[in-house]
Amino acid sequence: MDDANGLPPRIGIDRPGSFSRSVFHERHPVLIANLLEDFPYPPRIRAELEELLAESLDGTVPAEPPPGPDTAAWAAQLAPYAGKPWNDLPFLWAEAYFYRRLLDAVQYFDLSSPWRGVDPFAPQKGRQHDGPEMLRDLDAYAALAETDPAERRRSLLHAALWGNQADLGFRTNNLQAGQGESAGDVVVDDSDAVAELLDAPGHAPVIVVADNAGREITADLALIDSLLETGTTAVELHLKADPFFVSDATGQDVLATLDALDSIPNEPAGTLATRLREAIGTGRLELRTHGFYTLPSTYRELPADLATEFAAAKLVILKGDLNYRRLTGDREWDPATPFDTVASYFPGPVAALRTAKSDLAVGIDPARLAELDQDTPDWRTSGTHAMIQVRR
Ligand SMILES: O=P(O)(O)OC[C@H]1O[C@](O)(CO)[C@@H](O)[C@@H]1O
């Protein structure tokens, strides 16, 4: 246990052979190479990206916060880490800081730059929109049209779960497109508890904290439409304010998804887009964002305004691996630790929907864990195993 707070130690990036270290040493070089291929960046930006990569592999953290609208928040974040080797940073903190510095390198917040506001990951996200996998997903969606609404909601909950497999950062050198995709093994499935919470009386909103753009946000939007159809009064969809972790969804990405749904020759997809636009227009679906989501903080450090909203919601659905890491603090938990215990501090009922893509796991039955570790040793990081976990 970590002495300071009685919690296990935070996962670091220093251990040779660890997954977290491979994210920096194996994935990030590919990620930077992809950016340099996708954009005709000028020499200054190219150099900044390469310097950032080198610094993150064996340099130290500078004291100056990156300039931009969130500089004050980052100054506070940097205080304990300035001057330290990157190698000594907690994994979650280091990754969030890497993505923030990446935005700085591509002049995303620079008012005097023509590159201001250009999402460095837009080409990668956009390529998902009319890809064969998306068309297949939407065919599967169309096939649900005649299903009973409650049954459809259940199917769409699982679609939203597996949509998380399609994360692009993860694609850099793990699953190749089309490979290993499909509903794999759901290690924990609390979907009945999700349904009970959704069907509880009352008009409080359901909050969906989004993860990735492309196929995942498409599945999330289909789920949200189904929530609105089956009695949920209002849904808030919480998005990133700025590009983050390659494929994380922003408001811009939601609009691009609605346009893509309209342009695909699939009638149920088109009518889904129409209903979603109407829901946004009437306020039943509210698109939201908050600076918290692009900081390295965990959900234990929720700002008061978000904590109040979460406490008042009927259910908060946290999508994806990164939200799972923030919920659990990205710590070295014993995987048998009950989810209820780990998430006990959360201000209201919470459901985590995640395909496992980092070493972390909690709430796993010990017998099942032994079986998984024996049969599929990489189940925690391969994206082939998933969980729906609920704390009421
Ligand atoms: O898109 P998700 O499900 O949040 O997953 C992002 C995952 O990708 C990684 O950034 C690694 O590439 C993990 O650290 C992280 O957990």
TrEMBL record:
Cofactor needs: Mn(2+)
Top-level taxonomic group: Bacteria
UniProt keyword terms in alphabetical order: Hydrolase, Manganese, Metal-binding
Gene Ontology biological process terms from the UniProt entry: DNA damage response
UniProt cross-references to Pfam families, sorted A to Z: ARMT1-like_dom (PF01937)
Catalysed reactions, semicolon-separated: beta-D-fructose 6-phosphate = dihydroxyacetone + D-glyceraldehyde 3-phosphate; beta-D-fructose 1-phosphate + H2O = D-fructose + phosphate
GO molecular function: metal ion binding; phosphatase activity
Annotated family: Belongs to the damage-control phosphatase family. Sugar phosphate phosphatase III subfamily.
Protein name (Swiss-Prot/TrEMBL): Damage-control phosphatase ARMT1-like metal-binding domain-containing protein
Organism: Glycomyces harbinensis
